[in-house]
Amino acid sequence: MGRRSLGEVARLARQGIRNRHPDGTRWQQAGTFAVDGEGIVRWRHLPEHAGDLPDLAMAARALG
Known about the structure:
- 30% of the residues lie in helices and 14% in strands.
- It has two helices and two strands; from the N terminus they run αββα.
- Strands 1-2 form a two-stranded antiparallel sheet.
- A hairpin with a 5-residue loop joins strand 1 (32-35) and strand 2.
C-alpha cells in the first residue's frame, strides 16, 4: 500500500468507483454467450479459469 497506490484509490473514489464486497455464491460462474435475434443461443464460452478469455470473433461468426 504505497503512496501512489493509495492516491490512485482516492482518485477512483472521487469518480464514484469504489471497492465493494462480492455478492452471490461461490457456485456462480462467468460465461459469454452469442444470442441471435430470435433469442436462440448460438455460441457459448464457459471459462475454465480467470485467464480463459472468449474468442469474440468466433462468437460473431456463430451469428452469421
